[in-house]
Amino acid sequence: MSEQQPAVPALEHSVLAESFVFYFSFQEGDAARTYGFLVRNVSVLLAALNAEDFSVFTELLYADIVDELEGEYGVHDWSTRPSQEIEAIGFTSYEVEPDDEKTLLEHWQAWFVSKGATVTPVVPVDESVTHDGDDFAIYRYIEATQPR
To answer: What is the pTM of this model?
Structure first.
């Protein structure tokens, strides 16, 4: 009897396995503004929340921070798609006031840092990158903005 392979292979332990992309799209009518940042030291983050893998981590995220931020800023719709190249957390909101967008993203960054991760600065993500929903393209776009 042969063992079945998972549909989406686990990421190898690498820079990509120790990083993920976080992005947030603020929807206003037909227009959207998307901002993102990279989260590094994922294994430290998982250990801080006693999560054995990324999918468990994303479930714990809701109890730990999402409910609080939704109560303060408005509902966040989960918008992440499976990717074999990179893990991602993506949200869309129709309720966050434009004046609160920066503050909301700073709250997210502070939360990740409080759990032992490091984060890159928030960058606006060009609509041409986000239109087809490729998380890895968003990751590469943000990575390209980082100083070498």
So the answer is: 0.83
